[in-house]
Amino acid sequence: MDWAQLADVATRLAGGLPTTLLLVGQSLLIGFVLAVLVALMRVSPNPLLSAPAYGFVYVFRSTPLLVQLFLIYYGSGQFRPFFQDVGLWFLFRDAWFCAILALTLNTGAYTSEIIRGGIQSVPHGQLEAGRAVGMSPAQLFRRITFPVAIRQALPAYGNEVILMVKASSLASTITILEITGIAKTIIAQTFRPVEVFIVAGALYLAINFVATQAILYAERRLSPASAADRAKAAERRQKAMLAR
Amino acid sequence: MDLTLLAWGDAGWGDQMALGALVTLAVAICAYALGIVVGAGLAAMKLSGLPPLRWIAQAYTTVIRGIPELLVIYLVFFGGGAALRAIASGMFGYEGYVDLPIFLTGTICIGASAGAYSAEVIRGAVLVVPKGQIEAAIAVGMTRRQRFWRVLVPQVARYALPGLGNIWQFTLKDTSLISVIGLVEIMRQAAIAAGSTKEPFTFYVVAALLYLGLTSLSNRGFLRAESWANRGVRRA
Lengths: 244, 236
Fold this sequence. Notes:
B: 77% helix
């Protein structure tokens, strides 16, 4: 193994890091909002809302992301005159937009199932208690259903985040040069797949490690404080009072 | 959209797409079988009393589950080809171009990933089998092999089925990634047809429908297998 070359490979691959992070970050953010909406539609008693949500989730979870990506990026080309007429061609011509759209819809479908599980795990008594003190449906959702559901859903959502980091590598198939795209380019130029794989793999593992830690931290922050934590907080407050 | 493009025979792409679906199914089944064997081996390593075995299995699952399958495919495809060429010229003096067969490459890559995920599922299922049953088996004088096949395997299979069903769905969908190295399965066939007919949307929709059909059918199969495996279990 040649160290100078390894350093060169590492620098070039690290250049793809922001692109990967941006792809994952943007699609997770928009996908989460979509997922909450879809999950709410899915648990609605109105079949006009729940049926389309079910169909969306079913189709996007049963087909490979690569098909979804190609359908949007290459498939839209078949309707180019139409998209040009309505003035949307500039979006579908853009690989970045297509990658974000595919990743967003995909994670939206998976995440909505995770959130639905969370919503359905909210104890009925808590909702009744909320109604009894006169909360409106919006208040019930904001103050009880949503926080409790999110807390329940966090561990599973952590897995989804890692799957999305991995999924973002597919953007390289539609010309986007994120880590995997750059890795493939370097392999084709140098025929040194092992070195490239080690560095690119380490980058992905590092991203996933940080993401896992962030989710664990959020879990700790959002879980109801244990009795020991509350005692410690009280002690701290008391000390602060005395110090004054 | 011109649906006559999907005609059977020389006039259309219907038979080619169907053949692509068979290739997808074949590579998915091979990768899945490999995945379960690898997964069972890794689960045994993780449950073993020897720390080095546990570390190796843990490292393998952590790395494979954290790295994109696409990257692994590129590594095995390009790296495997380079290694094979080195062996061919070094040991046999063959200087021509050799490559790892793409079907094999795909099976290994997707199987490696399925193995890492199924290791956790199988390990969890083994842990659920009550310890008393193993002790009872020892008490009635079963050999290790008998304990394994008569007590452990039937129950682990039952507990692991839902998780393994999920892994099958992932495996089936992940096979689409092998199209990037040229295996003519559903995705590659759709790309070829789209290129020559200038109707990408039509063919990618067909590809999506084929995957939808395969996942729906196999999902039903797994549900039936689950109810079969649970036939002797009393429901609460």
